[in-house]
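Bench log. Compound arrived from synthesis this morning; before running ITC I wanted a structural hypothesis for how pyridoxal-5'-phosphate sits in the protein. Inputs:
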Amino acid sequence: MSPSQAKRVFNFSAGPATLPLPVLQQIQDEMLSLPGVGASVLEISHRSKDFDTIIEDATTRLGRLLNLPDTHEILYMQGGAAMQNAMIASNFLTDKSQTADYIVNGSWGKKSAAECHRFGNMNEAYNGSDDGFSSVPSQDQLSLTEGAAYCHMTSNETIQGIQFKQLPNTNGAPIISDQSSDFMSRPINVSDYGMIYACAQKNAGIAGVTVVVLEKKLLERCDDRLPSYLNYAVHSKGGSRFNTPPSFAIYVTGLVCKWLENEFGTLEKVGEFNQSKAKLLYDLVDGSGGYYKGHASKESRSDMNVVFTLGTPELEAKFLAEAADAGMATLKGHRSLGGIRASIYNAMPLEGVQTLAQFMTDFIASNG
Ligand SMILES: *Cc1c(COP(=O)(O)O)cnc(C)c1O
């Protein structure tokens, strides 16, 4: 048996995460020779006509899925969401008299705020650590700065499994949203944002590329004295090819978008699919009489990362071991929180979630 024919598990990893099978198959089919090119995507110049086609196709598909308005553009960058966290403050908080607001509702938001704090005036508009980051703030819990340079939020907190269901009102400050773990998982109105960014390895492809959706107006703030690579205006001017971009990762993002268009057509449909998967698990948690305890408050539950605990660490270890034996991998919660985390991004098939739900029901019956 060749490795490619080995049985695939249902992979609940938080990231890098499971990819759609048709995407992996197309990568495999084209690995040695791209149709019409005669060489691998790994071997061609990022300035070639063939790569132009690849990056343009990815951008066209992304734009269609997001209903991208003319006011915004798509950039592909390296350095992950972590580098965006540093770039945001250094590019958009250039007026030292200004303050940037950060809504901290989980571990990733905390890291974003810390990067801004190194650079300029950062106001924590909210900090949910007192309730263990179990819910997103309501509008009246926010202490926003008048005339803030921008307001940063984390759309989906991957570790705590909590997700914004509606956008905060920031009184005109551009919203900058880390959507690393829920990008393209539901419909959004791009015009509501100054910037959206998402490392690709959760919902949009593989590690190595970060997708940035940027309001062009914000480019006026980028200072010439910034290192070139760390300046959004430089990437915009270079069409994401100021230097050699992560070409293979961009190719995969294009394939993921093609799969989304073929399989679902629109992000509305993707959102419905994700909600129905998440509901299966949350209904089971709610109906378990306290056997499974969800981390998130009901209104803030993430459709992407379902986080819950069992009665004891021993029972959780047994749950994880038996799940692994039954072909469900990487369900262990983040080390900072413990428990179980099922990451069920776009590419997790319904069958995977159904298999997990059945396993959870059976587990109560045999260990209850
Ligand atoms: C995974 C993740 C990140 C980290 O991305 P890197 O590519 O490792 O820098 C940041 N924010 C959120 C919400 C994430 O889920």
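What the model suggests: The longest strand covers residues 121-127. The radius of gyration is 21 Å.
ITC booked for Thursday regardless.
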